[in-house]
Write a sequence for this structure.
């Protein structure tokens, strides 16, 4: 039996990133309506000011601030109302001392006015006079041109995921076609003679196919395009045929299962046969996740990943390597970890980085991280977890009460 010459997590990431630089995602322009959850491929630079005019942030009266000096609830000032500005229409009057204009929220502030008095501090008399009960300073409740966005400002940076707020910003700038990264195309092959369909009742020694579904969901959540996902028997000829077929159409192939040394060797031999560069990582100094293999087909520009068969380990490795890689090549910012306190002492794994699943809970002293104990074959351990803590391979372990960084999935 061959001994695995494992890579550290950092080494595996470095090798993956080197390979990925030869198959960086392409960019495309999509309609704003189709850009939700896509990743910006370019900085969005504003070609205009927002707002383009002086705008009121309240319902009220546009005034010369000096006219309100000394105004109180018992001693109002009286001003002549020149107009009622309609939302979406320009103001036509010019405010001079002794005059004002009613402006709704978002409406255009007339020339000459330098402050707004909220309608709550006013009382109308007739059609053209108002009593104001508030002394307002210069500039109060007026949004200046370009105060939100100036011409030439970088409003959204490349690598930003487009959510509701970002879509609203793009709409405000009149961006109709959005530059985004094309998602990598992904194929998933779950291997194992013990796997049955999820609509079947497993017989003795059999289990339902979990990884196909769990990985498919995570691939989509990451923003990648799932091309195919299927379970395959542990037959070398069949597996090689499926991988060769997937390489033609995909940027990333994930093969999960076959945790035993012999089956992993079979997967590695297939990948080395069908790919020009072949396997560059055979084993990972990670718990869980040691039986991980990574490779690259230089000719087809396809990344190859052999993941552990145990569901929690497969998801953890996919997150630590391929989710990380996609964020790197698309410039997405790292999600900041949460600070939490360990609830118990825990030993590390000598020579391995430990990915410790934890669930978070509030306590009087702050956020606590409680380990989710369970073997890597148990999918329930992943389902219970809110995130994970990485214990360095040179670290003896963690102590109860020690502050740790919790990374969220």
């Amino acid at each position: 039996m061959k001994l695995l010459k494992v890579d550290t997590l950092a080494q595996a990431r470095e090798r993956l990133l080197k390979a990925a630089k030869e198959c960086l995602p392409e960019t495309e322009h999509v309609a704003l309506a189709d850009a939700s959850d896509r990743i910006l491929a370019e900085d969005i630079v504003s070609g205009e000011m927002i707002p383009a005019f002086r705008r009121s942030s309240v319902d009220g009266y546009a005034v010369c601030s000096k006219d309100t000096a000394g105004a109180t609830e018992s001693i109002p000032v009286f001003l002549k109302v020149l107009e009622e500005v309609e939302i979406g229409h320009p103001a036509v009057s010019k405010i001079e001392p002794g005059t004002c204009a009613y402006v709704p929220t978002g409406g255009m502030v007339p020339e000459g006015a330098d402050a707004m008095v909220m309608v709550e501090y006013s009382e109308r008399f007739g059609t053209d006079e108002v009593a104001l009960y508030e002394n307002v300073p210069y500039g109060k409740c007026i949004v200046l041109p370009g105060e939100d966005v100036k011409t030439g400002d970088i409003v959204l940076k490349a690598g930003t995921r487009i959510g509701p707020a970002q879509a609203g910003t793009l709409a405000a700038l009149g961006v109709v076609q959005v530059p985004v990264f094309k998602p990598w195309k992904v194929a998933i092959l779950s291997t194992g003679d013990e796997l049955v369909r999820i609509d079947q009742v497993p017989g003795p020694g059999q289990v339902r196919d979990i990884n196909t579904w769990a990985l498919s969901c995570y691939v989509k959540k990451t923003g990648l395009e799932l091309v195919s996902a299927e379970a395959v028997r542990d037959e070398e000829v069949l597996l090689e045929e499926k991988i060769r077929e997937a390489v033609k159409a995909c940027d990333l192939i994930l093969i999960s299962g076959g945790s035993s040394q012999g089956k992993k060797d079979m997967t590695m031999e297939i990948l080395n046969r069908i790919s020009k560069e072949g396997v560059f990582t055979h084993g990972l100094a990670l718990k869980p996740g040691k039986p991980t293999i990574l490779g690259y087909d230089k000719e087809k520009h396809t990344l190859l990943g052999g993941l552990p068969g145990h569901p929690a380990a497969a998801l953890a490795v996919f997150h630590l390597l391929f989710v990380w890689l996609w964020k790197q090549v698309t410039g997405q910012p790292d999600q900041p970890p949460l600070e939490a306190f360990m609830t118990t002492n825990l030993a590390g794994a000598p020579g391995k980085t430990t990915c410790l699943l934890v669930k978070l809970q509030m306590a009087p002293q702050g956020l606590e991280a409680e380990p989710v104990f369970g073997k890597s074959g148990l999918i329930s351990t992943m389902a219970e977890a809110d995130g994970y803590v990485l214990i360095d391979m040179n670290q003896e372990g963690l102590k109860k009460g020690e502050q740790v960084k919790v990374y969220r999935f």
About this structure: Helices lie at 9-20, 164-172, 211-222, 236-249, 261-274, 311-330, 379-384. The first strand starts at residue 27 and ends at 31. The chain has seven helices and 28 strands.
